[in-house]
Amino acid sequence: MAAGLRATAKAMDHPPEPTVNAPVLDPTPQFYSVEDEVRYYRERGHRTMKRYIASPALLLQVVRYNAWAFWLQGRAKKATRLNFLVPASFLALALADAAIGFRREIAVLPILICILVFYLPRLVLVSVARYYVPLVPLLAILVALTLEAGLRRLWAAPWASRLRGKHLGDPMHAG
Question: Where does residue 172 fall: left (phi above 0), alpha (psi -120 to 50 degrees), or beta otherwise?
Fold first, then answer.
């Protein structure tokens, strides 16, 4: 989008006729005061709550959709497909690592609580995949558990005995 088209479209009394080169109108509401904005979003909240109370199944649909959209939903179909490669595999590793951490009695619960505190409110809000990015460092800690466990297994393998000479020592207990 060219610079200034949104401001131009907002300033117009009437939107232009739909053509190929028409400016894109900004879908976000504009407010004259903070009080107007608060009233607007309070009213939207009340209407949403009424819809959820009238149809609890709608709330379940929103939660179900946002549960996967938070991790995988891109702005375009191609982005969503690509999100199934990297973030989905990263998330699968992190979940497996949480199980490994519990089994090995590593304190992964604080990390999982931080992830859930960030994730759960987004189940009822609008979610797209970019919202998971602040969780990547926490997920990386969990993924490191699998990498460390894999290195331990490799180092303990019989064929690795040739590598475990005095000059190398044990990389897992390097001092």
Answer: alpha
Q: Is residue 163 part of a domain?
A: no
10 in any annotated domain? no
In tens, the pLDDT along 135-168 reads 889 888 888 877 877 777 777 777 666 666 555 5
Structural domain contains residue 12: no
Helical residues (DSSP H) of the chain, grouped into ranges: 5-11, 34-54, 56-72, 77-83, 86-103, 109-119, 136-156
HSE (side-chain half, CA atoms, 13 Å) at 88: 13
Q: How far is CA 7 from CA 12, 37, 40, in A?
A: 9, 19, 22
The model's pTM: 0.60
| Distance from C-alpha of 81 to C-alpha of 153, rounded to nearest angstrom | 33
Number of domains present in the structure of the chain: 1
Q: Which residues contact 7 (CB under 8 A, 6 or more apart)?
A: none
Domain extent for 85: 31-157
Cα dihedral sign, 66-69-70-71 = positive
> If you average pLDDT over each of 18-22, 74-78, 161-165, which comes out highest?
74-78
